[in-house]
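TL;DR need structure tokens for one chain.
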Amino acid sequence: MIPKDSGIVPDHAVPHALGSETIITMDSVSKWFGPIRVLTDINLKVGKGERIVICGPSGSGKSTTIRCINRLEPYQKGRIVVDGIDLGADAKNVNAVRAEVGMVFQQFNLFPHLTVLENCMLAPMKARRIRKDEAEATAMKYLTRVRIPEHARKYPAQLSGGQQQRVAIARALCMTPKIMLFDEPTSALDPEMVKEVLDTMIGLAEEGMTMLCVTHEMGFARSVADRVLFMDRGEIVEQAPPDEFFTSPKHERLRDFLGQILHK
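>> reply
TL;DR here they are.
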């Protein structure tokens, strides 16, 4: 429960920005790692096509929140519904949600013994039973979409970090997901490689992809997000459209965070 004098705006009191069909609902979701409570009553509704950026200090529960959405992290309390599918119902529901939710991690997690093309073809062939020729055509489509089709026959070790992350995005897109989750996708990259990955993500946002992105790239949040969420100590402390979030933060914890991150 949030104390009345805490200054925290209950997340359920803030509707999703687009006023459209709700595609993700988190209802009083809590999670523990052993005796440590890492998420406390997370309530969140995400509209179809909405773009949300989640920020906050290290250990605030940002990555855990989005990992719960496709059940990469189990949660002990509450309910999550993704595109009408209740994640808590049974294992089949979890698999159904994962087929519709793409995820890109800090590390690229590409198979080093497979070519770029083979990395992108694998999941559609295994999970969706797509024919090899169709999977290859889809892979080339999305490698072209992220502007690296010329590297299709190379192995991950032959690519830069930024190129590998774009392959990871293309691989996720090959499953034609309805939702994309990004867990600090630029944090492992050298500064000169960050822009190429962010540009790819901006392109996806412009095409109407539902996106939740954990990042400290505040320029990306300002230009792309419909809504920015600030998390601290396992709670959603504040959320607002970017203009309001950055110019009129209400909570002291958010003001302190922005003061540190924007003046580095």
